[in-house]
């Protein structure tokens, strides 16, 4: 048995210093975008990473609890969780913008309420929502008459249509996959969205608006624009565009529609 009294005192550990002449920068990302993603969303993070024009743009993501179904009631329940989710976004770091990634949720909860929740934690960050970003994008194109495509059930579609009309847009056609389950929304293929977009358009529409951050519309937005010969605005595309520009990045992005390429 070891006699504790005989154990030698441990030597103080000392490493070799290597940082005497090292110069620090501000860390990864000149343009830093915070992203609040629904817990059951498969699409937004991938879309944002794919649309980055260069490595100067850094995306930092957190998740917010959400139910499997997309209904007005379930969307409303997310509101009190927004501040808690925001607190997890690199708490000691600077963020230029923070985007709440739910189109229908941003309509149901309202921009002002979402912004208040986010700014209660990060007052310096510009708040972005997909519906307000989409309206800004549509205004950039001068689009007043809209064809609209969504994945939602009609309870949610009615709220979207009313919001667009209250914002001064004329909805000349409204089409939907009528899906309630978020998993099924994520399972919609790019080809399915492309074909639905062709059916949803109308000759008198100035633009096509594709709602919902959960569906993979970004990957086919260029194809849809070429086929229709008019601007196409999708939720994730518009949200990223506005977040990018608000952060101060004016780089052109190819492959994701006229919005990111020219504005």
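Sequence proposed for the structure above (263 residues):
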């Amino acid at each position: 048995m070891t006699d504790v009294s005989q154990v030698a005192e441990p030597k103080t550990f000392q490493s070799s210093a290597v940082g005497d002449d090292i110069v620090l920068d501000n860390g990864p990302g000149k343009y830093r975008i915070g992203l609040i993603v629904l817990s059951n969303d498969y699409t937004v993070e991938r879309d944002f990473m794919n649309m980055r024009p260069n490595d100067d743009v850094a995306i930092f993501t957190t998740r917010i609890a959400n139910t499997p179904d997309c209904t007005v009631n379930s969307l409303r329940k997310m509101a009190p969780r927004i501040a808690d989710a925001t607190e997890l976004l690199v708490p000691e770091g600077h963020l230029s913008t923070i985007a709440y990634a739910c189109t229908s949720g941003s309509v149901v909860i309202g921009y002002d309420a979402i912004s208040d929740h986010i700014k209660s934690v990060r007052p310096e960050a510009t708040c972005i929502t997909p519906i307000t970003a989409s309206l800004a994008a549509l205004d950039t194109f001068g689009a007043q008459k809209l064809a609209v495509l969504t994945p939602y059930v009609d309870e949610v579609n009615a709220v979207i249509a009313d919001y667009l009309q209250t914002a001064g847009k004329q909805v000349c056609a409204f089409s939907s996959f009528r899906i309630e389950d978020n998993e099924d929304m994520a399972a919609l293929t790019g080809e399915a969205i492309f074909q639905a977009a062709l059916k949803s358009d109308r000759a008198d529409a100035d633009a096509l608006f594709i709602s919902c951050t959960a569906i993979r519309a970004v990957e086919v937005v260029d194809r849809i624009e070429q086929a229709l010969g008019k601007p196409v605005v999708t939720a994730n595309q518009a949200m990223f565009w506005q977040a990018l520009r608000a952060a101060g990045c004016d780089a052109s992005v190819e492959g994701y529609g006229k919005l990111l390429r020219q504005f």
